Structure to design on (243 residues):
């Protein structure tokens, strides 16, 4: 396997606080990689720098064999790197189906005009059916439950046919049935060739789903490897107990 994403020396300071400190790791193509660590260890900050939502103070990123000199969310999305957020980001006033059509790369004028083809609408409907949201296609996204919004956001990022998906706490605040649903969809898309990098606090899910596992503490990696190896690493145990 080869590295699809390479992070080298990323650093971010907020005043006198160093949130991410000379952070380096890689995500191999074809893996479901976990990025875990205690609260405040820099996981989401690292995500935000990788995807261009936050400017790094220093360090570099390489995606799919190319240096990313100025990470920009839209350009990365078109290049095959997409992400979700801890709080699902959707268009609440659009319908569930319209959220997926927009995620396919169509603008507002396209959406409300006639430039969206029947094939693209069919693709949106197919994805909604896959996520068991088809019956809600014409409902306003604002009227979905919290867990359904998470599913919709996940479905939307897949509309771009990404090479790498970054999931930021996909199961936070959802019930066990929804956790199983999320896991099933990750496994299904992984089997189709999608690579994942997942920030997740549910360690049972991480241990059965992810390999390898990267552990951050105080903004820097302290361990990486197979789930069982990481789980038994004294540095990891100390980091979590210390938190």
């Amino acid at each position: 396997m080869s590295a699809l994403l390479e992070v080298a020396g990323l650093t971010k300071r907020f005043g006198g606080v160093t949130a991410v400190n000379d952070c380096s790791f890689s995500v191999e193509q074809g893996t479901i990689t976990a990025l875990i660590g205690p609260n405040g260890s820099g996981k989401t900050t690292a995500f935000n720098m990788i995807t261009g939502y936050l400017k790094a103070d220093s360090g570099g990123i390489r995606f799919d064999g190319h240096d990313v000199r100025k990470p920009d969310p839209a350009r990365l999305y078109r290049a095959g790197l997409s992400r979700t957020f801890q709080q699902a980001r959707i268009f609440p006033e659009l319908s569930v189906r319209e959220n997926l059509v927009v995620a396919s790369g169509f603008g507002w004028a396209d959406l409300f005009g006639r430039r969206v083809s029947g094939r693209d609408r069919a693709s949106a409907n197919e994805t909604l059916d896959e996520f068991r949201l088809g019956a809600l296609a014409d409902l306003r996204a604002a009227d979905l439950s919290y867990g359904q919004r998470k599913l919709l956001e996940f479905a939307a990022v897949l509309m771009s046919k990404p090479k790498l998906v970054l999931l930021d706490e996909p199961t936070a605040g959802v019930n066990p049935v929804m956790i199983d649903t999320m896991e099933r969809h990750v496994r299904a898309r992984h089997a189709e060739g999608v690579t994942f990098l997942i920030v997740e606090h549910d360690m049972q899910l991480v241990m059965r789903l992810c390999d390898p596992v990267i552990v951050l503490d105080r903004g820097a990696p302290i361990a990486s490897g197979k789930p069982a190896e990481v789980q038994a690493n004294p540095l990891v145990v100390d980091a979590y107990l210390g938190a």
Q: What stands out?
A: Residues 176-191 form the longest helix (16 residues). Residues 35 and 214 are 5 Å apart (CA to CA). The chain has a mean pLDDT of 91.
